[in-house]
Amino acid sequence: MRLLLSSLATLILAAPLFVGAARAADDCANAQDQATMDECAGKDFDAADKKLNEAYRQIAGRLKDNAGSKKLLVDAQRAWVAFRDAECAFQGGPPETAGSVRPMVVANCQAGLTNLRLKDFQGYLHCEEGVLDCPVPAAQ
Fold first, then answer.
1. Which segments of the chain have a pLDDT < 50?
2. Per-residue 3-state assignment (H helix, E strand, C coil) for the chain
3. Which sign, positive or negative, has the C-alpha torsion 61, 62, 65, 71?
4. How much is the pLDDT for 118?
5. CATH number at 34-140
6. Per-domain residue ranges of the chain
7. Which range is the signal sequence, renumbered to this chain (predicted)?
């Protein structure tokens, strides 16, 4: 009986947490104000960037014994990040004239380009041995 009451009390106390999580998801799906849209776009970019960084770490790990290829990866990724950020700044427009939608436009652009780069990385991580344009060795 105590276990049942304890479990029921835990569920009752935790219910607001579940509602809060559901409400946050609804806020993004039905965002009505610019601040919420900006926040949701930022969260999308953060999620994409986290996945990209994990794939990057996997690739770097596979290249740990090949200093030349690892340097090329680092150089390519730095150049790609610079391109992504410059392209998205361009898409967002000058900060002084773009208005309140600029953070959302920039974050959406960053998320989109980051997801495209992630697809490239996933291709590198799963390409078949002998494919000439695959710079990443197969997992061991």
1. 1, 3-5, 7-11, 17-23
2. CHHHHHHHHHHHHHHHHHHHHHHHHHHHHCCCCHHHHHHHHHHHHHHHHHHHHHHHHHHHHHCCCCHHHHHHHHHHHHHHHHHHHHHHHHHHCCHHHHHHHHHHHHHHHHHHHHHHHHHHHHHHHHCCCCCCCCCCCCCC
3. negative
4. 98
5. 1.20.1270.180
6. 1-30, 34-140
7. 1-24
